[in-house]
Specification:
This protein is of the alpha/beta class. The chain has a single domain, classed as 3-Layer(aba) Sandwich (Rossmann fold). Helices cover 32% and strands 19% of the residues. The protein contains eight helices and twelve strands. The strands form three sheets. An eight-stranded mixed sheet has the order 1-12-3-10-6-7-9-8, sandwiched between helices. A two-stranded parallel ribbon has the order 2-11. It is globular, with a radius of gyration of 18 Å. It starts with 5 loop residues before the first strand and ends in a 7-residue tail after the last strand. One of its GO terms (cellular component) is cytoplasm.
Length: 288
């Protein structure tokens, strides 16, 4: 059972243009447009200005990781049977898998083609969140690095990215979804990163365990379990004063978020893909 007290609002993005449509394809970008009658980001900004209960959630999937490349090479059946259960292949570490060069290129394109046009129209998100897995930290740096330009931010700009354990990919068995020790990640990426003119602070949760206590070698999280986890995480993210929120995460997290928000499924969302979701408190009607 979901703990989320928000639901998606239909009628603006093509991903949820009609309440009767149950799914959309995500591999061709058809879910990224605006429905007829919605003029684009200006209308979204107007909605947010007029109705203080509405929130905009930007769900960004990481770019291709080494685990995604292996699954593409060997096929999903062999990936699930063997490769996903290995901590590494040849010289490639699969634990807390990183982005491939293609993955970095994908999310740079996402930054330029999707995030930058959004920011140019309605400004930057009020709050940034990320999964703690390395591919998501790298995705944030590579994608938003295309947006924090000298034309949009000053040389003294500082941004905080809140790293949330509960926003991780489906837990268990697959080594790509096992988090490396926290001190290893901090040593690798630092506690702050410079993206162009912008200093990014990685804000980890107080008391974050050094070792991964959530991942299990024997149990893969069920749909019900991840929906319960992600429902709780989204409730926390959406309960603050911020009304324009970015979350850099995973396919499994995005699909779970769409389920608990009662949003149509996005089939085959590609690595580096994004889903925009307008949300409202579930117990009230949106004033749109």
């Amino acid at each position: 059972m979901s703990r989320l007290k928000y639901s998606a609002v239909p009628g603006y993005f093509t991903s949820f243009g009609d309440e009767n449509v149950l799914s959309h394809r995500g591999d061709e970008g058809q879910h990224l447009g605006f429905v007829d009658g919605c003029s684009g980001w200006e209308d979204i900004q107007r909605l947010l200005d007029e109705d203080s209960s509405l929130k905009l959630l930007v769900l960004a999937r990481h770019g291709q990781g080494h685990h995604n490349a292996l699954e593409s090479k060997y096929g999903t059946q062999e990936w699930e049977r063997y490769w996903a259960l290995q901590p590494g292949v040849h010289e490639v570490t699969l634990v807390d898998a990183q982005l491939t060069e293609l993955g970095k290129q994908q999310v740079r394109s996402t930054g330029k083609e999707l995030l930058l046009p959004m920011v140019e129209k309605i400004g930057f998100p009020e709050k940034f969140y990320s999964s703690p897995l390395r591919r998501c930290l790298e995705t944030y740096m590579e994608s938003w690095g295309q947006v924090f330009t000298s034309e949009l931010v000053s040389s003294s700009t500082e941004v905080s990215v809140y790293v949330k354990e509960q926003c991780r990919e489906t837990l268990g068995r697959h080594y790509c979804d096992k988090r490396l020790p926290h001190d290893h990640v901090v040593e690798q990426y630092g506690e702050e990163t410079l993206l162009g003119n912008t200093k990014v602070h990685w804000v980890y949760e107080p008391g974050m365990a050094n070792e991964d206590t959530m991942w299990s070698e024997t149990h893969r999280e069920t749909v019900e379990e991840i929906d319960y986890r992600i429902g709780g995480a989204l409730q926390e993210l959406l309960s603050g004063e911020e009304r324009y929120i970015s979350l850099t995460c995973h396919s499994g997290v995005i699909q779970s978020a769409l389920r608990v928000l009662k949003h149509p499924e996005i089939l085959q969302l590609q690595t580096g893909g994004v889903v925009f979701v307008l949300c409202k408190p579930a117990e009230t009607e949106a004033k749109v």
